[in-house]
């Protein structure tokens, strides 16, 4: 029976320390994970201030525009009496008899009650009801397509970066080329080829004409069929950015000492790739993905116009043209909340993936 010499044990400890330094794959302290309360408290204060500023801008911005929602509504409905128009202004919170400060206070009171106002563009329906009918379409199509694009681009970029110098490098210029094509042009090409010529997919709308939304296999099949072409277009158009970013970060991470030590210790390449290299390289991708969440809700106007797809993007465009203040504010509020929630989740994921954040703030 043999025992390891003190010198050998010392060298093994040095190799272990060299592997752990600089990598986010190890915990900051063995046995327990320190919760970075100061970090979360500071971020919570920042996001609360950002939410207040966004809601304040959301209140004042539509009021700086020319015209108002009532004037636009009267232009579409000429049989409204002046008394009814005045009542409508009071109902919409744009009563000229109230000061702008009182309107601001009333707006906050409505938000705390969960009341987003009424939409003049949609027959005086509650804004919350209008948004609830449009938001699922945007989240279901653009949200799912963005997540798939992020996953494929991140995994593909990690593999291309790991096998640098191989034939897989050709994927970068190909995907980047599609990323430079304007989305509306790519969508029109997809419609011309796969809808008009090959007749594989419908060219517009979220389901067949004359159908009404219902939970049935036939309707779900129609939604999938109508959503495939715009979803694939979104994935192709955004894949290049995710793949290029991940590949460049992988090239930087692979030159770190802890990667060299891990390979020298005989670790399997798959473990070195995913547990050490990719886990560190993905950190900037997480932040970029959080920023892209806002575009899932608000950046879909072009897609929804090209494919005549119902969603929040087209809703915002129609509300702006009609000067429907309440609906505009509701859409802006949804966009603001989605971006803030996405960034909060990104901070949590970042703190989980990078123990150095917990070390610094704990």
TrEMBL record:
Q: Where are the transmembrane segments?
A: 40-61, 134-162, 223-244, 289-310, 330-353
Tagged with keyword Iron: no
Q: What UniProt keywords apply to this chain's record, in alphabetical order?
A: Membrane, Transmembrane, Transmembrane helix, Transport
Q: Can you supply one Gene Ontology CC term for this chain's record?
A: plasma membrane
Q: Which residues are the signal sequence here? A: none
UniProt topology in membrane: Multi-pass membrane protein
Where it sits in the cell: the answer is: Cell membrane; Membrane
Name of this protein? Dipeptide transport system permease protein DppB
Q: Which organism is it from?
A: Microbacterium foliorum
Q: Which gene encodes it?
A: dppB_2
């Amino acid at each position: 029976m043999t025992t390891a010499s003190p010198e050998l044990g010392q060298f093994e400890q040095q190799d272990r320390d060299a592997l752990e330094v600089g990598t986010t794959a190890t915990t900051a302290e063995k046995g327990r994970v320190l919760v970075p309360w100061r970090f979360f408290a500071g971020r919570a204060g920042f996001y609360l201030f950002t939410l207040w500023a966004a809601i304040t801008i959301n209140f004042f911005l539509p009021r700086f525009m020319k015209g108002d929602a009532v004037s636009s509504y009267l232009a579409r409905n000429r049989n409204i009496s002046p008394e009814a128009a005045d009542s409508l202004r009071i109902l919409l919170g744009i009563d000229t008899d109230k000061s702008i400060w009182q309107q601001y206070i009333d707006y906050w009171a409505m938000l705390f009650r969960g009341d987003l106002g009424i939409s003049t563009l949609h027959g005086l329906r509650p804004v919350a009801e209008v948004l609830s009918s449009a938001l699922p379409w945007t989240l279901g199509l653009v949200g799912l397509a963005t997540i798939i694009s992020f996953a494929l681009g991140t995994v593909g970029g990690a593999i291309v970066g790991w096998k640098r110098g191989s034939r897989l490098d050709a994927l970068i210029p190909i995907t980047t080329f599609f990323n430079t094509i304007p989305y509306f042009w790519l969508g029109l090409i997809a419609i011309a080829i796969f809808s008009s010529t090959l007749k594989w997919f419908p060219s517009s709308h979220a389901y067949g004409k004359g159908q009404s939304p219902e939970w049935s296999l036939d309707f779900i099949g129609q939604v999938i069929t109508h959503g495939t072409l715009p979803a694939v277009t979104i994935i192709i158009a955004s894949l290049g950015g995710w793949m290029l970013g991940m590949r460049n970060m992988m090239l930087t991470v692979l030159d770190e000492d802890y990667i060299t030590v891990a390979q020298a210790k005989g670790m399997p390449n798959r473990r070195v790739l995913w547990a050490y290299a990719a886990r560190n390289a993905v950190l900037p991708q997480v932040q970029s993905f959080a920023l892209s969440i806002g575009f899932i809700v608000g950046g879909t106007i072009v897609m929804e116009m090209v494919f005549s797809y119902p969603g929040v993007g087209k809703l915002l465009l129609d509300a702006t043209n009609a000067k429907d203040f309440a609906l505009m504010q509701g859409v802006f509020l949804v966009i603001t909340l989605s971006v803030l929630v996405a960034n909060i989740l990104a901070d949590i994921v970042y703190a989980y993936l990078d123990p150095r954040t917990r070390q610094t703030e704990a």
